[in-house]
Design a protein that fits this description.
There is one protein chain. The chain has 4 helices and 17 strands. It has helices at residues 13-21, 86-89, 246-255, 269-272; strands at 51-53, 61-62, 65-66, 74-76, 98-104, 111-120, 124-127, 132-135, 141-142, 152-153, 155-158, 161-164, 175-177, 200-202, 229-232, 242-244, 263-268. A hairpin with a 6-residue loop joins strand 5 and strand 6 (111-120).
Length: 274
Amino acid sequence: MSVRPVRPVRGRPLIAALLATGLLLTGCSGFGGATDHADNVGSAPGGTAAKDKGAAVGAGTTGGATGRSAPEAQSVQPEEIPELGPATRAKISPQASQAVVVTGMERDSSTSSLVVYERDPVTGWQAVSDVWPAHNAVRGWTDDHFQGDLRSPIGVFDLTDAGGKLANPGTKLPYDRGSAFEASGDGFEGEALAGSFDYVVAINYNRLSGTTPLDWTRPLGEDKGGGIWLHVDHGGPTQGCVSLPRGRMKQLLRMLDPAKRPIVVMGDADSLSD
């Protein structure tokens, strides 16, 4: 960007389904001179709900009278997000009831998919969106992100702030509109980057929550990178961000609700299934 540097479950059923339907795309952006937002874009380098049905009780005869079956007893286990393993689930705050789950095909792939989930206190997590195609960083994923590695960070991060070059499309998140949300030049596959930052949501990796996405404060230090966003897809890999088609990005912004403490859970399928 041209602003200041500023398994599914193991067995991969979801990824197979995505490949079958052709939903996954190949490949945020790249443009010359950007350093870390930069991690957004940059020039190309040289349970199913478990129900335990109780057995009928009271069947048979007693004193010549036919017994009646007792009402079937059922206990419902809250749904979990199917892509996520126990270690990943443990990182999700109990207060979060909205999760944007970004699942990369492979560790070194820039192709991913996104599903939005919401948590009901009784039934658990339920998908509230279709599977949307997405892109991540050109070199894939890492659990030790640093500036310029051209990989997207794996983890669970809060979503608290949004913004963009264009007017707020209807999100309840704080929204900072300004001309500084500008992307220019070409991406890794020669695609134009213009419009990539028309709509963005800051991913709270190495940033201060409650500030504009353009705040370049890096609590973990500059070497750990930053400026990781959800933003408009331009048709190719990113430097570290996750990108969505324009219509889906607007839809996501309208869905996100700070009262539901939204988070993003992101990484390759193998990592997320741990």
